[in-house]
Amino acid sequence: MKNISVLVDTNVLLDWSMPRSEFYDVADKIMQLCFGGKLDGCIAAHSFSNMFYILRKNHSVEGRRDILKLLCAEFEVVDIGLEKILLALADKQTADFEDALQIQCAIAKNADYIVTRNIKDFANSVIPPILPSDFLAILEKEES
After folding, report:
1. I need a surface site. Which of 6, 71, 89, 140 has the fewest CB within 10 A?
2. 4: nearest Cα among 128, 93, 144
3. Whole-number mean pLDDT of the chain?
4. Residue 16 in contact with residue 115, Cβ under 8 Å?
5. Residue 36 CB-density burial (10 A; 0-12 exposed, 13-18 middle, 19+ buried)
6. How many other β-carbons are positioned within 10 Å of the β-carbon of residue 126?
């Protein structure tokens, strides 16, 4: 399998870290491939502040810090400096600013895919969005 680069969207990270039972198994497979170095995974920097806030429902402050530290150790974190912010603000085809930032981070990383459960939110992205289950199916096909 070639070295595939993916930006893992916040919803997939939350499926894994909360864990959201309906989506956990597929998210965990994606995460394990990234942890094992079989995928070149990256995370947009702003996902961390969003996750720290959302994870309060399931994890203590220390637990949240541990999860985010693990992600920092295992993934490339793509910064969201001024240039990406301005490009995201100029993106009139992407209604959600947070998604526009994700797209800019994926572009900066030159990712092959954005792994997300919200395909429609990335409909106009130059980096193709893909459902986690569809992405795993592609990987399985490549390995055969």
Report:
1. 140
2. 128
3. 95
4. no
5. exposed
6. 8
Task: List the beta bridge partners of residue 114.
Answer: 7, 129
pTM: 0.94
R_g of the chain, CA atoms, integer Å: 15
d(CA 48, CA 10) in angstroms, rounded, equals: 8
**DSSP strand E in 63-123: where?**
76-78, 113-115
Amino acid in the structure at residue 26: V
Query: What values do phi and psi take at 92, rounded to 5?
Result: -80, -10
Q: Is 77 exposed, middle or buried (0-12, 13-18, 19+ CB in 10 A)?
A: middle
* Residue pLDDT, tens place only, 85-139: 999 999 999 999 999 999 999 999 999 999 999 999 999 999 999 999 999 999 9
DSSP assignment of 8-25: EPHHHHHHHHTT-HHHHH
| CB of 132 closer than 8 Å to CB of 117 | yes
